[in-house]
């Protein structure tokens, strides 16, 4: 039967499926179909699909035997997939256990169910977890043709940012020198290196850097990746005027590192600055902070002002793509 589907290239299939699932747009009575290099993901309401995704009519196979969590619960639970883990965010223990049981008994290809037990905390941005089903907090996550080994109990990683990471990575050219100042396990570093860039990633979390080195090896880019454990402010003097591209994905406190970013920037650099601000003025504080740090040494040109996602009531996670051109 012909149904509305989002059509994407195979390597973007899982990230797109997650994005549509978060928006409540997956049509669960139909199976996702693969035809050559294209993946067709059935959707419930084609008019609600984000404008950057392409909706087509496709003869999708009707789901016959796959049992989903909603079939067992009688209602649609909220969860996200990270590799072979299912992650939920429930305060009520009984509700959390019911959802975990439905996920575990369903036909989803998962090896564990985790419940968030704390907010992100500390310098390493980790959180506590309740392991409700399975036994491991380690997994391999795949997005846009790259794979990342990680352990959510010891590193920070958000699958929700896959589309944003891809947006940045597609701007990278093979001759670039890129620097991720808060690299984690490498979700920016690895795909930038896969596009041919030379990339340095730093992070204060030594476990994350160990995973970054392993992920560089797994993805065949270890010759283009330098992973450094430590505070970027201490590393920066060795790489002054080095970076053609800088990623600053530390939205609660990136402004504290702008002087360091400017010292790392080459004569013509692109800065991706992530911030969390009130919805009434989401971009202005970050832009003012960048100008204060970079001018008059650099001419500052904001190329993109982009809202990544809603972070909390009346707060948004945003990114500024900014060109820094050294003034003669």
From TrEMBL:
GO cellular component entries: cytoplasm
Annotated protein name in UniProt: tRNA (Guanine37-N1)-methyltransferase
Xref: PROSITE patterns: SAM_MT_TRM5_TYW2 (PS51684)
InterPro entries: MeTrfase_TRM5/TYW2, SAM-dependent_MTases_sf, TRM5-TYW2-like_MTfase, TRM5/TYW2-like_N, Trm5a/b_N
The species this protein was found in: Halodesulfurarchaeum formicicum
Enzyme class at the top of the EC tree: transferase
Gene Ontology terms: biological process: tRNA N1-guanine methylation
Domain (SAM-dependent methyltransferase TRM5/TYW2-type) ranges: 79-326
GO MF, one example: tRNA (guanine(37)-N1)-methyltransferase activity
Alphabetized UniProt keyword annotations: Cytoplasm, Methyltransferase, S-adenosyl-L-methionine, Transferase, tRNA processing
